[in-house]
Specification:
This is non-specific serine/threonine protein kinase. By secondary structure, this protein is α+β, with helices and mostly antiparallel strands. It is built from 6 helices and 10 strands, in the order βββαβββααββββααα.
Length: about 230
């Protein structure tokens, strides 16, 4: 097997390679020298297992996520489906804003994306899947000429994910997304509201409880920010 590195981040490296003849993305989590070796191994394995489980649960629920082709806990590598023509939702939004000077037209173009993201996160929470790191960098926009809207929305990077029926964790998931959007897309504050509106239509019977918890989490976060 050959592999070419395409990205390196704080958590690991991404390679383009193949697995049993299929092109794939290889995610390698490298050793964190600042952690005790046993703790580092434990955390790395937990996150790898979380990614495998979440991907499987999403796909079973009809939510697009990379198929995990193979996981190797000894080498800390995950072999997963590769979307070669995809871009992140972060870049999609930034490019849309840069290409259009009319704010109302920008809103109109981003509305469809927000609706689809909100629906997907709602479906994910309805199936009790908590992502743990919802940002526009962890959402892919993958061209699909056969699709009604000509692209698929795919969730990625489930290393912090888990399964939980509780409203608290779902509320925290939403709060993480809101903070990420305000940080990355500060001029488009409406994006989260668009997403949240569609989320509420898709998150299931616990909608009111989850939203109430989200409001509580948001209030706690604002209080911490004020106090410092």
């Amino acid at each position: 097997m050959t592999a070419d590195i395409i990205k390196q981040g704080a958590e690991g490296r991404l390679y383009l390679g193949d697995f049993k003849g299929e092109s794939c993305l290889i995610k390698e989590r490298f050793v964190k020298k600042y952690r005790h070796p046993e703790l580092d191994t434990q955390i790395t394995r937990q996150r790898m297992k979380a990614e495998v489980k979440a991907s499987s649960r999403c796909l079973a629920a009809g939510i697009l996520a990379p198929r995990i082709l193979h996981s190797d806990l000894n080498t800390h590598k995950l072999y997963m489906e590769y979307f070669g023509n995809a871009q992140t939702a972060k870049k999609f939004i930034q490019d849309t804003v840069a290409a259009e000077s009319d704010e109302e037209k920008v809103k109109e173009k981003l509305l469809e994306l927000c609706i689809r993201i909100g629906a997907i996160i709602g479906q994910m929470h309805a199936n009790n899947i908590i992502h743990g790191d919802l940002t526009t960098s962890n959402i892919l926009i993958n061209p699909n000429p056969a699709a009604k809207n000509e692209y698929d929305v795919i969730l990625i990077d489930f290393g912090l994910s888990h399964y939980n029926q509780g409203a608290e964790d779902k509320g925290v998931d939403l709060y993480v997304l809101e903070r990420a959007l305000l940080s990355t897309h500060s001029e488009q504050k409406y994006i989260f509201e668009y997403i949240l509106a569609e989320y509420r239509r898709n998150c299931g019977k616990d909608e009111e409880v989850v939203i109430a918890k989200f409001d509580e989490v948001r209030a706690r976060g604002r209080k911490r920010t004020m106090i410092g």
